[in-house]
Amino acid sequence: MRNLSKYYDSTSTLEDNYEALCDPALSVSTDRQQVNDLVLNFVIKYLARYLDLDEKEQDTNLLRRNIKERVKKITGALLQEYDGEGFSLGCLMDIRKTAALVKEIAFNDRFKPEGEKPNDFFRSVDFGSGTGILLIASLIAARRKDVHEIVGLGFEREEGAINKANSVLSGLLSEKREFATVIKADITDPNTFIMLERESTHFWISETIDRSIPRINVQGTTLSFKGSQQDIAHALVEETKDPFIRVLQHSLTHIPDFEENVKNGSIAMFPDLFNGDYEPNVYYSKMTLKTGGNISQPLMIIGEEFNLHEDLELVSRRW
Ligand SMILES: C[S@@+](CC[C@H](N)C(=O)[O-])C[C@H]1O[C@@H](n2cnc3c(N)ncnc32)[C@H](O)[C@@H]1O
Question: Can you give the pTM of this predicted structure?
Fold first, then answer.
């Protein structure tokens, strides 16, 4: 185990870390350690900012204790119950996997901005944006391509999460040309998607699998996003609380070029539903995360490269 203080640099701000990650000269392949350190610092500082803590706290143990205390106050419990505002906070606090997702999104260069001039316009949308951290990671990806007009749009249903995310995002972006906002909307409602019909969506994020195992009625169809629209429609859904499949379905219907963009890897950031046969008890162990291009990783191993001091794991874990 590495020492906790190595993962946290108290001399830089959240804004410093954001700007450093936006630098196109920083390469995910040749500067791997630097990228990982920056991403981890960014995630920890985002978490501290989200919880109104001093993100430049020198004493990392104190920072960790303060984070735990603050979370206890907000949720009234140690996130054993994954619901309400605590749900997305629980995700953010899973620092190892959050860092892996942020890195994957921020360094994705497969999407294609557009406009009259190349790189004129970029829009990312996060369906179920929670704390906003994955949405902001997508803006880093656009900045790294030096896109002129950058817009991030989050849809979320939890008031607390919406307000908090908007406050952190507007503070972080206050002096930047890029813009991000979270609005209250139900991502299972097709009307939410109608507002996306008129402009392209270049980056699509939806981390909306949850602990209620969806009852997917496969009807003999192999459900994979590589399949056709038909496959996905067939797979719909009996009494599931999980919005993911509906978000996919509405995206296929309302977002211009969605299916094509997913297939060519230029937009995508989503868990694949499963590989092979559906077996409820091994749901998560069978799932992979598809992140555009050909990258597909089992959920269970995501984030291993961010192996942390055990103290930093705090109290939550996604999958
Ligand atoms: C797994 S969390 C995503 C966390 C987020 N990626 C983050 O890192 O903060 C799923 C989010 O989707 C939101 N959500 C679930 N169902 C929704 C719905 N029908 N409409 C809008 N938001 C929804 C939840 O409130 C939660 O914040």
Answer: 0.85
